[in-house]
Amino acid sequence: MTEVLLKVDGLKKHFPITGGVLGKQTGSVKAVDDISFWVNKGETLGLVGESGCGKSTTGRMLMRLIDPTEGQVVFEGKNLVTLSDNEMRKTRKDMQMVFQDPFASLNPRHTVEKILEEPLIVHGIGTKKERKQMVNEMLEVVGLSSYHAKRYPHQFSGGQRQRIGIARALMTRPKLIIADEPVSALDVSIQSQVLNLLEDLQKEFQLTYIFIAHDLGVVKHISDRVGVMYLGRLVEITDADRLYEKPLHPYTRALLSAVPIPDPAVKREMELLTGDIPSPANPPKGCAFHTRCKECMEICKTDRPELREIEPGHFAACHLYS
Ligand code: SF4
């Protein structure tokens, strides 16, 4: 039976824009503007969109690394937004993050052993001896060796550093991993190795993933469901197979055009994205995508489409389906 692990409701993050000598608030950047979704236990939800769409801000709000302006994040029945700092710290044992740039997120002055031991110390797990053994075991699990424990991050390749980042996230045996562009900084040849590792670990540790990426190609094989974000909002969300076979939203279709098809017999119409993404400080009225949409109608310029269930389990925010 499917069980919901995380439920996000009406989540917003508005950053104030200040100006003038008095530093008064003159507006706000709506980095995330009222998004709702859920993640089932054991599944991978891909969150995709161009840079500035709010996907990374969403990931950070789920971990409460930044506080939401409004909305709820319910994890295992607890609303994380209202938890005290102390309760939130304890909850982070069960939800961890893997970052895009492992070099920036690993302390260069600490050995790998110290980096991996730290989350265990923070959560009061094990004796010194047990922690050392857990570090060595985890290094093997992510495809490194116990002899790597005494080395420093700069002594590793990019792919190995990301394995260390993944090992660190797994040390407390979390239930949910939020991976924010975990392979974007890696060579293409290394990307698939890290993706395969993440898939193997998901089975071994019964993990649930939120996998954030800027292109639909990367999340295709790893995701069970995919949500597409544009200018701080979810514009489409459904099962991965359905999204790739029958995308409903014109923005999703444009993003998919950029994904290479391995089978040359299969033809897909190219819908190249034109124009720049508008500023989230001053988003277009109506449908935020209307300035770049080839199917824009009059109503799109004035009325904002809500995310609606167009077909069972397939949600999209577009007037084409009103
Ligand atoms: Fe395009 Fe209109 Fe749909 Fe927006 S609502 S994606 S402008 S057709």
From TrEMBL:
Pfam families: ABC_tran (PF00005), oligo_HPY (PF08352). One of its GO terms (biological process) is peptide transport. Residues 6-256 form the ABC transporter domain. SUPFAM superfamilies: P-loop containing nucleoside triphosphate hydrolases (SSF52540). GO terms for molecular function: ATP binding; ATP hydrolysis activity. The keyword Oxidoreductase does not apply. PANTHER family: D,D-DIPEPTIDE TRANSPORT ATP-BINDING PROTEIN DDPF-RELATED (PTHR43776:SF7), TRANSPORT ATP-BINDING PROTEIN (PTHR43776). Keywords: ATP-binding, Nucleotide-binding, Transport. InterPro entries: AAA+_ATPase, ABC_transp_ATP-bind, ABC_transporter-like_ATP-bd, ABC_transporter-like_CS, Oligopep_ABC_C, P-loop_NTPase. This is Dipeptide ABC transporter ATP-binding protein. The keyword Nucleotide-binding applies. Belongs to the ABC transporter superfamily.
